[in-house]
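Sample 1 of the test manifest.
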Amino acid sequence: MMQIEVLFEQIEFLAIASIVIILAFLALEHRNIVYAALFFGFMASFVAGIFLLLEAPFIAGMQIAVYTGGISALIIFAVLLIPRAQDSSLETFATPRRRRIGLVISGLVGLLSGGLALVFPWYDTFAPDMPPLELNMELLSQWLWSENVIYVQIAALILLTSIVGAIAILKMDKAERLISIHGEFGIESVEEPIEDEATIEEPSEEVGDE
Amino acid sequence: MRLFIDFVPVIIWAILAVVMVVGMLAASWVLRPHVLQNSEKTASYECGEEPEGPARIAYPYNYLVYTILFVVVDVMGAFLWLLAASSFRLSEVVVWQVLVFVLIIMGGMGFAMKKMPETFLSGQETLTLYRKAKAEQASEEIRSGGH
């Protein structure tokens, strides 16, 4: 009975790991960038399956909430915001030489990480008297919010930095765009301002047509 | 204790969701009329107008802030969710810690809400800039003697 369970676990791991690798490859290599973002989201939710296999429900839930929900939305927004490189002169294609170099590098990285995983002393790393944090929400929240609460506050400060940085980048971008253009017909206004000038503008001529 | 086994209902639901979507797509494929596909049929629908250029354009960068705010609230929720799942939240120290945590992030949100209107390119500022440049040009012309 025990052996069947171990075998079952190994089969689960192999299935999830191969799905994750296939989805990650698709996310990198798909020609349409929107589909690539979609495959990234799927990959993130299957990584949550690996955390479930390791019996860590909180990390699995956090993975789905933050990666599948948040980071995927961020990537999709970034795809919407950047100018379309596909079918333009910005698009570059992988030459066979680049492909070979990439294959060699990825093989080296795979070998290195696989060797490290085999050599690493997993059983000596964790003290045997450590409480089973992963399955016990009560213990885990005590561990996070009392002993390591300073790291939670640091995380809050990092989030604050990201908000302030986003606003600062937008203000810099606006300052760059806010210059008058000396065009063909004299001085022109900047492109596409927000139309909050409805009260200042003269009444349009469309009214008289009726 | 096999946690993965406990989540089998979730997997069944996921499979049901996939089957549902694929089934609906297949049903609509069966039910819809299959007429000859030409460029007018396959063109994207823009209220009867001729589509001009690609449908996917670059949106203004300003909208990125909304996503960043979403991710920030998402991470905050994940931290608080762990605490909400335990009775440990009732102790006084933890209440203060949570208050500091939430206030830091909410301060950031308030800052973003306050500053966001300033990051949009406003017509008022553009108009001021335009008038200033025009006045400068006019004074330059007067100084140089007419033309």
